[in-house]
Amino acid sequence: MALSDLTVADCWAYRPDLTVPEDLHAFWERTLGAAPAAAATYEPVDTGLTQIRTFSVTVPGFGGEPVHGWLHLPATATGPLACVVEYLGYGRGRGLPHEKLFWASAGFAHLIMDTRGQGWSAAPGSTADAHRYPAGTVPGFLTRGVTSPEDFYYRRLITDAVRFAQAAQEHPAVDPDRVVVTGISQGGGLSLAVAALFPGVAAVMPDVPFLCDFPRAVRVATEGPYGEVAEYLALHRDQSGEVFRTLSYVDAAVLAPGATAPALFSVAMMDRICPPSTCFAAYHRYGGDKDVRVYEFNDHEGGEAHQQLEQLAWLHKLFGR
């Protein structure tokens, strides 16, 4: 495996001049302005585990549509907890209730969001995306409604993600001043978008983030979902302008200057799915205090368990533990 993008030194120097839609803030204010249709619900789940309590979660997402998830709480915890809200990678659903136990084992509340319409790779999902799409959509999600910001799939998914962060803040077991958002790949891009759009976030931890610097990513990624856009435009040759305009509304690197919470990024320099230069584009434009862990010889798996320990130590320092 070799570099397929810029070197580390070139990534530190890479500062793209991204196009910001004039109505970006109005678009998201309008999208997020409607209050959720109902409160989140939490149903206890018997996993057979004795040290962690688990709940099946339903949160009203975009348009009030139900979005599922899991909430894990340490069984012996007392008092409001810091909460890690996790968004999932491309293709993943919420999976089984006992799969992701790291954060609850470390003493945090852990809220996991299912990904609407996804859940066919690695972990199943249970949240439908009821919206229809015109003919000509490339298999996958990056071209679903891609000619219109209003109809684009990721407008709905980012709204779901914001609603989960809000639900975490409102849960009685959670300290509302210590809500953290995180995720790998697609989940990393979602965490950046939420940090920019929801001021209640206390910290953000995006790992090898997807949804960043679309103009470059679509052109240089050699594997993964960015290729859906290139494949679409190879056929729809006259739609490049409107497609990249739509993508700019959900581009985490475009949204990043609006975030102010402390951030811990991770980037993998041999990443063929989320090119490291695009991750650094979001990092450089991020509006709050930030740090980054660079994994020079890793592909899209990034830091994996090593990065989890980095995150845990970083949160303990941030929250004074």
From TrEMBL:
For this protein, the record's PANTHER family field holds: CEPHALOSPORIN-C DEACETYLASE
The record lists the organism as: Micromonospora parva
Classification lineage: Bacteria, Bacillati, Actinomycetota, Actinomycetes, Micromonosporales
Provide the protein name. Acetylxylan esterase
Task: Name the Pfam families for this protein.
Answer: AXE1
Q: Where is the Acetyl xylan esterase domain?
A: 1-317
Domain of life the protein comes from: Bacteria
Q: Which parts of the chain are coiled coil?
A: none
Q: SUPFAM superfamilies from the entry?
A: alpha/beta-Hydrolases (SSF53474)
